[in-house]
Design goal:
415 residues, alpha/beta, Rossmann fold, Dihydrodipicolinate Reductase, domain 2, 13 helices
């Protein structure tokens, strides 16, 4: 048996034992006027953004955080001075008066924190992408379905008014038969400064970081500060731009068109923008095939930001254009809009429309659902579907072949 197999076996055993041990306290029943008490696991760059979002939600107390790097404690206390801190997430989950937990740890630890949180009887907000691999997505979906906890995934586009407008136009039949969706996301950086590369603080040392907890069952290796801080650059811990950005747009598209798991995926590209030692590609072209005779394309580059991000839903009776951050060529201003344009050959009397449904606060939606026990906007199901779509694309890229859903289910994750 390989070291990798042994490490994974031991991790699964430890995770299962830890989850069982966490079922100590029953969930607190919230009254209408009770404050929701929240804990956070992982308070790095993205975690700090979510920390600021949750403390802005009325009638919520952020009471505790867990992280394996003490620097994060000081950063969080600058916002929440009295926050309780732990260097082991299991101790946070044993705190019986915590109602709900935000998981913002690195991608490769999401599944463990996801399942441990549900096992502890806490409601959950899990950052995207829901998991690092397809097997983990299957496990987390099963865990959520076997739980009565509220689960919101950090797919903020699911709370966009643009999604509500798109769903309405499709339901009204004015889009017609959709066979193709074009989508893209573009960014740029100063020469020599690759996307996601962050400076390494001087206190990021083996003495200050719980490195084994970060590895999370991966084969033992010496402490690497660059991998710890810039984990997004490495397959062992990340899914690259697919799981950082495409997942937001593919979840929006799949929700709008009610799409299931893709039947197949292809992906090409490479590390073309900055040769800085990263493993994950910065230039990408993805094609996802779906059983309803729909093809979804997604393209991305880290060498040009002019067109921002967006989607074109191409129907026989009309086009839905959704853009965000695109630079208007006339005014030079950044534009964000959702519009419908009729296909005159099939809707000669159709008129152009502009969406006006307001966005919802994604974090507020989660807290509201903790109280109402209703389904949040970004359900575990769309978290699962979008994760699978992303992982299929990455498998296709890494194996340099078209990957079917049947094949993807049988492939063991590669670190």
């Amino acid at each position: 048996m390989s070291d990798r197999s042994i490490a994974r076996r031991d991790f699964i055993k430890q995770a299962a034992m830890g989850t069982a041990a966490l079922m100590i306290y029953p969930p607190r029943v919230l009254g209408a006027n009770d404050r929701v008490r929240v804990g956070m696991i992982g308070v790095g760059g993205r975690g700090n953004e979510l920390l600021k979002q949750i403390v802005a939600v009325p009638n919520v107390d952020l009471v505790a955080m867990a992280d394996i790097y003490p620097r994060r404690f000081a950063e969080a206390k600058a916002v929440v001075p009295n926050i309780q801190t732990y260097d082991d997430h299991r101790r946070l989950l044993q705190q019986k008066d915590i109602d709900a937990v935000i998981v913002a740890s690195p991608l490769h630890i999401h599944a463990r924190h996801f399942q441990d949180t549900l096992g502890a009887g806490k409601d959950l907000y899990s950052e995207k992408t829901m998991t690092w691999s397809i097997p983990e997505a299957e496990d987390c979906l099963k865990a959520a379905k076997n739980s009565d906890r509220v689960v919101q995934i950090g797919l903020q586009h699911e709370s966009d008014g643009s999604l509500a407008d798109t769903k309405k136009w499709i339901k009204d039949g004015i889009v017609g038969k959709v066979t193709m969706v074009q989508s893209w996301m573009s960014r740029n950086s100063r020469h020599g400064h690759g996307q996601w590369v962050r400076p390494i603080p001087p206190d990021c040392t083996a003495a200050n970081v719980k490195w084994d907890a970060f590895l999370n069952g991966r084969p033992s290796q010496p402490f690497d500060a660059n991998k710890f801080i810039n984990w997004r650059l490495f397959w062992e811990f990340s899914g690259g731009n697919i799981t950082e950005n495409m997942v937001h747009q593919i979840s929006w598209i799949m929700s709008a068109l009610d799409l299931p798991v893709p039947t197949a995926a292809t992906m090409s590209g490479g590390v073309f923008s900055e040769k800085d030692g990263r493993q994950v590609p910065d230039t990408i072209a993805v094609t996802l095939e779906f059983p309803q005779d729909i093809v979804v394309n997604w393209q991305s580059t880290f060498s040009n930001s002019h067109y921002g991000l967006g989607e074109h839903i191409l129907g026989s009776d009309g086009t839905i254009e959704h853009v965000a951050g695109e630079q208007n060529m006339v005014t030079g201003r950044s534009e964000s809009a959702i519009r419908y344009f009729p296909e005159k050959v099939n809707r000669k009397d159709g008129t152009a429309l502009t969406g006006n449904t307001p966005d919802q606060n994604h974090m507020q939606n989660w807290v509201d659902c903790i109280r109402s026990r209703k389904q949040p906007n970004a359900t575990v199901e769309i978290g699962y579907l979008s994760a699978v779509a992303g992982h299929m694309a990455n498998l296709a890229y890494r194996r340099k072949e078209r990957i079917t859903w049947e094949a993807a289910k049988a492939i063991q994750p590669e670190m």
